[in-house]
Design a protein that fits this description.
The chain has one domain: Alpha-Beta Barrel (TIM Barrel). The chain is α/β, with parallel strands linked by helices. It starts with a strand and ends with a helix. About 40% of the residues lie in helices and about 15% in strands. The mean pLDDT is about 95. It has an eight-stranded parallel β-barrel with strand order 1-2-3-4-5-6-7-8, surrounded by seven helices. The protein has helices at about 15-30, 45-50, 75-85, 95-100, 105-115, 125-130, 135-145, 175-190, 205-210, 230-235; strands at about 5-10, 35-40, 55-60, 85-90, 120-125, 155-160, 195-200, 220. The chain has ten helices and eight strands. The protein binds 2-phosphoglycolic acid. 2-phosphoglycolic acid binds near residues 160 and 202.
Amino acid sequence: MKHKIFAANWKMYKNPQATRDFFKKMISFDLKAEMIFFPSALCVEAAIEATKSSNIQIGMQNTYPQNEGAFTGENSSATAKSMGCTSVLVGHSERRSLFHENEILADKVQFVQSIGMKAVFCLGETLEQRETNQTEKVLSHQLETGLSKANSENLMIAYEPVWAIGTGKTASAAQAEAAHQFISQWLEKKNFKKTPLLYGGSVKPENAAELISQPHISGFLVGGASLDPESFKKICSV
Ligand code: PGA
């Protein structure tokens, strides 16, 4: 049986009270699945408190790659770790496109791993890149640069085609599987140990079962459909 991982990217949604309300409901379902939630940094403390006696893990959506220092407006995953966080998203497409993150991603992955947290490295192609047959080239480049200082301990990958994020357009199971297979071969070539590969991009209760049945898909990174406990429960139950 496949070990499945269900991650939830809450982006800039929910306040601390909505976070507490969500987890009260989510914990009442008593799901056994591996679940990691990425609330906004301002809600991490509420999330940690609310999930204390459960199997739910909490992570950060971003980090600055230093323990501490004069970096106004940034957050350190070292602080998050001291609060109980286990994982950090690195390289989400919104960080890449809206905040122009690129070269810094390798340092972020390295920093997260160096403090014993799990880096969830996100990558994916745009629609234009897919339509001009550049998907594999783009994925290789993102892997080469983002993972140049990484090791295979404490690593997860989330393949998220940019054109499927928040658009309601999901990659077909075959498209997602092909990209996951490509990433998995790349990792093998670089001697990375078995790394969980999550799919993200408009995952919903309606398409989760078909996607998870693909051999190289080990779980999901879910945005919109993770904001409602009932809908996320259905996804975690596939
Ligand atoms: P979505 O977001 O599920 O709303 O498409 C996924 C993500 O951005 O991680």
